[in-house]
Design goal:
Layout lengths: L1 E5 L5 E7 L2 E5 L2 E5 L2 E7 L4 E6 L3 E7 L3 H9 L1 H5 L15 E9 L1 H7 L6 E11 L4 E7 L3 E3 L2 E12 L4 E11 L3 E12 L2 E9 L5 E10 L5 E12 L2 E2 L7 E4 L4 E4 L2 E4 L2 E7 L8 E9 L3 H4 L6 E12 L6 E13 L2 E13 L3 E9 L4 E9 L7 E11 L3 H4 L4 E16 L4 E16 L4 E13 L2 E3 L6 E2 L3
Antiparallel strand pairs: 1-2, 2-5, 3-4, 5-6, 6-7, 7-8, 8-9, 9-10, 10-12, 11-12, 12-13, 13-14, 14-15, 15-16, 16-17, 17-18, 17-19, 19-20, 21-22, 22-23, 23-24, 24-25, 25-26, 26-27, 27-28, 28-29, 29-30, 30-31, 31-32, 32-33, 32-34
Amino acid sequence: MFAINVSGNRFYNIEAKVQSLDLCFSDTLYKMHPAEMSFLTNDSSTVFKLASYYYNLDFSACNYVTDVVNSLINLPGYYLSGSENDSVKFYLPEMSVSGELKYPEAFARIFFPGFPSFEKLTVDGKYSRKTDEIDFSLLLPHLEYNSVFADTLRFAVSGNSKELNYESESGFRVEDMMSGRLDIDGHFKNSELITTLIYRDTYLNQYLNLTAKIDTSGNNTIIQIIPDSLIFSYDKWIMNPENRIVISDTSISINDFELNSAGQQIFIGTYPENNPENVELKLKDFQLGSLEHLFDLDTIVVGVANADFKFSDIYENLKIDGDLAISGFSVDEFDAGELNLSEFSFSDSLVKAKMSITGPKEDIAVTGSYLFDNEKSPLKIVLDMKSFDISDLNYLLEDYINNAKGNLSGKIIVAGSADYPVINGNVNFDNAGIGINSLNNYFTIGNENIAIKNNVIDFNKLSIANKKG
């Protein structure tokens, strides 16, 4: 049964009942549960009801449907509207909502394989004009999407016309990469937002604890970090409580935004001083060891980073220039030594950079550039390997090879375009050998040379001997 009653421009009454419905997916017949739906809206009320085996929803509000939707969408902006009064008129109509939706993995996989699945979505909320109180919560446990899992996802809003409080918490896991817990809470009041973000790693240690205040009462947006409990990368950081980031439609100003912790330093500022269009980011002796616990890594990450990046003309034609140096960089058994990114530059016409790894066994340099205006041959990359210890591949490709040994050197030049690259160069093997796991065999290459000319590989008199003969 399906019925529609329309009267004028602002009266709609819709009812639908499904007693039996058969759906066929991949030659399999599925019988739907009975379902009922009703929707009524006019100038004084909106009522929506939906009921079936997997879902039910009951919503009512004392206003026309579009007015209700707009009042909810504009709710956060209401508190950041530039008002400094202690209380202003609240525009929400009287309303209530409750319901749940079951969406198990098996059901999702059959009907909507590209969407996340979850155990059950539950909503509950109301707003009373008499008491001027709003209370709303949403719970979504056991969310699953591809390799991302969330055992808990909860969002709640409560408050009144003077102050709106909110909470958000989620416990998640990205398969084979990372897991943790993210909690966000705060409140809107008098055109000011104060929010706290806490991220805990796999072991529930705090990787980040950040409280910020955002003020929109004037013509500009002012962001301030409250340093009392500031934690970043597991370390307690100190910064000037008078720090400010002031953003307008045409400019940005950053003052006293310098963080310090046990010799480490993070600096963000405008340059030259108080320039409204240029921003600089600096790292000094920043420790990388915390990455091991932030991600689900079985390796030990070590290194000290120093960086200086400048972002100029950020409102018109963004340009980025900078350098990054990581000393003592190693990942488990792979000791890279010194990692340097230098002469990095990005603009609307060019990207270029130099990168080098200089370690106990490696001496590798890469330079590259890409000209956006050169359609025919925008790309040029030069790989210069003075020395690369092949045994490092035992760690990097441990699932595929074993007992790799010897040294690799050579120079490779890639030019042309990304779609049609032209490769030239040579690769030299020195006393090289490698075991291939899938073949259960070991190959000795010895001292050999391979030349590449215009994408054609010349193996010359390359000889490869396998252990099995």
